[in-house]
Amino acid sequence: MDPILLSIATAAAGKLAEAAAGGIVAAGKFVKDRFAKDDKQEAVLMRAETGRVPVADLAAAIEEAAAADPAFLAQLEALAGRKIQVTQVNQAGQQVMFQNNFYGDGPGKVVQGETINIQNLN
Question: Which of 17, 46, 79, 80 shows its CA 20 to 30 Å from the CA of 65?
Answer without folding.
Answer: 17
